[in-house]
Design goal:
Chain A is α/β, with parallel strands linked by helices. Chain A contains ten helices and 17 strands. In chain B, helix 1 packs across helix 5 and helix 4 runs parallel beside helix 5. The chains are: A alpha/beta, B alpha/beta.
Chain lengths: 331, 305
């Protein structure tokens, strides 16, 4: 990161991609969106050529999904299955495809297996919450936020042991602590252990920690492609989705390699929706807005959407909106 | 002078009559303490060695356990561990009494054993099996003639505040030894009411513990435990040897699925009881690190060079 296309974002919208009355995604429409997005991002006429720019048949590919809001909001199995299908089409053996996430109890609520080619793996770091055996004991970021005794956050072992490439598949969600949870948060907090320690009471250290984790090798260099699943979204109380009234349906997929530029666009999506709903901005820092977040004008934390800009300063991508090129594809 | 710790097995304190001897034998309990009034009745009961004890003279202990404080915790806040280590360290010659139920009897036995404390354990019928199993495990641990390892000298003034500071240091795996005067052989000394540790700060004892940690620095800590917030480590050692005893204070609820231990000193070999391999062994930066795949209630890791 920021990879081959710094400062570039492709936004593909398809009204057919999701039936909001049934909450069902249209697999064929998603497939079209994936093809259009990859071709637009790379400029290739052939979809397979576009995928080959990032992945070779010898690669062992991790697909980093987001299941923190599952089953209602997660990296949609139609999107994840579509990505895997494209990988197989360019010669990646299904057995070299690993869909991964941290928590098994979240992932098992999502029917990924039905959408993946036979032989592909679904892997979680923590079969029991807090278990550390799924993390690499030798690769970690060490820091203390609130005097906690365990000061290490270790990287997912699958990444260091097996994966040669990672495709990051976040959602379009507001986040109570970090403001938004998109490309950066999904690859950072979703690939390291012991990260919830960065929040305490209304204070969260996500502003700096997310970028530091995302910039840690080998996560940084192995994450070669990002496909943000915005078929569904959450504009408040994220990353969870316990209350249907805070869900919305952008019906978009965003493509890129620059997590900062893409998350900058995510901020726009969330802010636009919140404004339409009459909710305060995610950049609000007044303590008077701390409180019961059943009301979208209140929140448990002072949010830190500045983590996106901070990640830009770490060299992970382009934050300046004027320097971000977004191409929009309407299907 | 270093205090040497002898391996002392805690005893079941049992006020029922000898008709219960079969239940004790079935649980594998071979030594008990009984009230004086029961002594004659138990005399000569086969397979049970009996001593008398007066629980009124014993210092009462809390049930070793974890309180997750779910009603006030955020996801990241460490749970509250109920430990007795500081009491053992403050009164090493004391007689102690646990009143514990069910599986917590096992942790009580392990806790007392790891500190070499003279402890009685009063438990219910459900606690006999877990206690017997733990005593069997502890009998397999070789006698420990090693000296307790400490990084911090704590000038214990005997107050409740000092007790709480020591309690917090035990929970945080900050290894200390109560001292009467600063001990220059230790890495730091902590005395309340000094410029470094003002009394006004002691209104929040955790602040004192954190200040001690900051002054010691994590790099100089003799032990670190990663991957769990419910495990307390106890270290004893001699040149070339180190014993690490690990206590899972949440054992009554769940085992710890993996924990990583770092100790100072480059050790090459480990023997673990209960028997299990050490994983991902690393000697680096003057320290040794290893992972244990699980910790049920108690484990001892004997390291050697």
């Amino acid at each position: 990161m920021p990879g081959a296309y710094p400062g570039q974002v492709v936004r593909v919208h398809s009204e057919k991609s999701l039936d909001t009355s049934t909450d069902r995604a249209d697999r064929a429409a998603v497939k079209q969106m994936l093809a259009a997005g990859m071709k637009s991002l790379t400029g290739d006429a052939d979809e397979r050529d576009a995928w080959r720019r990032f992945i070779s048949p010898q690669d062992v590919v991790g697909i980093k999904v987001n299941c923190s809001g599952a089953p209602k909001i997660c990296s949609a199995p139609e999107v994840v299955g579509g990505i895997a299908e494209n990988l197989v089409a360019i010669g990646v053996p299904a057995s070299n495809i690993w869909v991964y996430e941290r928590f098994e109890n979240q992932v098992r609520t999502v029917p990924y297996a039905e959408f993946l080619p036979a032989g592909a793996h679904i892997w979680t770091a923590e079969s029991t919450r807090g278990a550390i055996l799924g993390y690499d004991p030798k690769v970690y970021v060490e820091t203390s936020f609130f005097g906690e005794d365990d000061t290490r956050s270790n990287v997912v072992k699958l990444i260091t042991d097996r994966l040669t490439k990672i495709i990051n598949v976040p959602n379009t969600k507001e986040h109570q602590a970090s403001g938004v949870t998109g490309c950066l948060k999904n690859i950072a907090y979703g690939s390291f252990s012991n990260v919830a320690r960065s929040h305490q009471r209304e204070v969260t250290n996500t502003k700096t920690f997310i970028g530091v984790l995302a910039a840690t090798e080998p996560v940084r260099s192995r994450t070669v492609l990002i496909i943000m699943d915005g078929l569904r979204g959450v504009w408040h109380q994220g990353p969870f989705s316990n209350d249907a009234k805070f869900r919305f349906y952008p019906k978009v997929l965003l493509f890129g390699t620059d997590p900062v530029a893409m998350d900058r666009k995510l901020i726009d999506i969330i802010e636009e929706k919140r404004k339409a709903e009459g909710a305060v901005t995610i950049f609000e820092r007044s303590r008077s807005t701390l409180g019961d977040n059943h009301d979208p004008n209140f929140n448990a934390f002072i949010r830190e959407p500045g983590h996106v800009e901070h990640a830009g300063k770490l060299g992970l991508g382009v934050y300046d909106a004027a320097r971000i090129q977004q191409r929009v594809v309407e299907l | 002078m270093l205090l040497l710790v002898a391996a002392v097995l805690p005893r079941l304190f049992w006020d029922a009559g000898p008709e219960t001897a079969p239940a004790l034998r079935k649980a594998g309990i071979e030594r008990i303490a009984v009230p004086a009034a029961q002594a004659s009745a138990w005399k000569g009961v086969a397979g049970i060695e009996t001593a008398t004890a007066d629980p009124q003279r014993a210092i009462r202990l809390v049930t070793p356990s974890v309180n997750y404080r779910a009603n006030q915790a955020t996801a990241s806040r460490s749970p509250w561990i109920n430990t007795n280590g500081w009491r053992f360290l403050r009164q090493p010659d004391g007689l102690f009494l646990y009143d514990v139920k069910g599986p917590q009897a096992a942790l009580a036995a392990a806790e007392a054993f790891s500190y070499g404390a003279n402890a009685l354990i009063r438990t219910d019928a459900e606690g006999l099996g877990p206690l017997g199993d733990m005593l069997k495990l502890l009998r397999a641990v070789s006698a420990d003639d090693l000296a307790p390892v400490a990084d911090i000298g704590y000038l214990d003034d005997g107050t409740a505040t000092s007790g709480e500071v020591m309690n917090l240091m035990v929970k945080s795996n900050l290894l200390f030894r109560p001292v009467r005067a600063p001990d220059r052989s230790l890495k730091i000394n902590v005395k309340l009411g000094t410029k470094e540790y003002p009394l006004e700060f002691a209104k929040n004892p955790s602040r004192i513990a954190q200040m001690a940690r900051a002054n010691l620095t994590d790099d100089r800590r003799s032990v670190r435990v990663y991957g769990t917030s419910v495990v307390v480590a106890r270290l004893t050692g001699a040149p070339g040897k180190l014993r690490v005893q690990l206590l899972n204070y949440d054992a009554a609820q769940r085992r710890v699925e993996g924990l990583r231990v770092r100790v100072l000193g480059e050790y090459k070999k480990a023997v673990v009881i209960p028997e299990m391999p050490t994983l991902d062994w690393v000697n680096q930066g003057g320290g040794t690190e290893f992972t244990l795949a699980e910790l049920k209630t108690y484990a001892v890791v004997d390291l050697s060079k």
